[in-house]
Amino acid sequence: MMSICQYFLCFAVFSFIGWAYETVYYSIQQRKFVNSGFLSTCFCPIYGMGAMLDLILLGWIENPLILFFAGMVVTCSLEYFVSWLLETLFHKRWWDYTGQPFNFQGRVSLSFSIVWGILGVIFVEKIHPFITKVIEKKIVLISNKKKIIILYSFVFITIIDFICSVVKYVN
């Protein structure tokens, strides 16, 4: 069983990986640096949340085919909800699949649903166990006091970034 600190570390790691993926993808596409995502820092929380939901809700599934379809449903539900919420609150879309075949309201698409399903299987079966081993090896080297400082620092920075981002998009 993972501790709260380990969950936050995993959330942070996958939020960073998601941010890095999107930043590289859009920067190459637009031939300039693009800091994509809602936040200003190097975190894209929807990826961290997707990873945590896959882990918590699907981590027990052993059949890769069931895991694939369940991953599609969980991740697409998150993607749809976050898209709807951001657009409702800020009247802005952070992604739009309208031009893709088999999309639903431009918020989710079949092609990305398939990608999320595949990534769900890879995440639960390969990536998470590897990251967990790395974290477990490294976390024992850090004193509890430093772990708490790191955890609170991450939470504090994320909250400040979230508040600043909300203010930016409201105005």
Can you give a write-up of this model?
The protein is mostly helical. It contains 5 helices and 2 strands. The chain has helices spanning 4-30, 45-58, 64-90, 110-139, 144-170; strands at residues 103-104, 108-109. Strands 1-2 form a two-stranded antiparallel ribbon. Strand 1 (103-104) and strand 2 form a beta hairpin. It is globular. The chain starts with a helix and ends with a helix. The relative contact order is 0.13. The model has no long low-confidence stretch (mean pLDDT 91).
Number of helices: 5
Note the run of SSEs as H and E: HHHEEHH
Q: What is the tally of beta strands?
A: 2
Give start-end ranges of low-pLDDT stretches.
none
Structural class by sheet pairing and helices: mainly alpha
List keywords for this structure.
73% helix, 171 residues, mainly alpha, two-stranded antiparallel sheet, 5 helices
SSE topology:
Blueprint: H1 4-30, H2 45-58, H3 64-90, E1 103-104, E2 108-109, H4 110-139, H5 144-170
Antiparallel strand pairs: 1-2
Give a short summary of the structure.
The chain has 171 residues and is an all-alpha fold. The chain contains 5 helices and 2 strands; from the N terminus they run H-H-H-E-E-H-H.
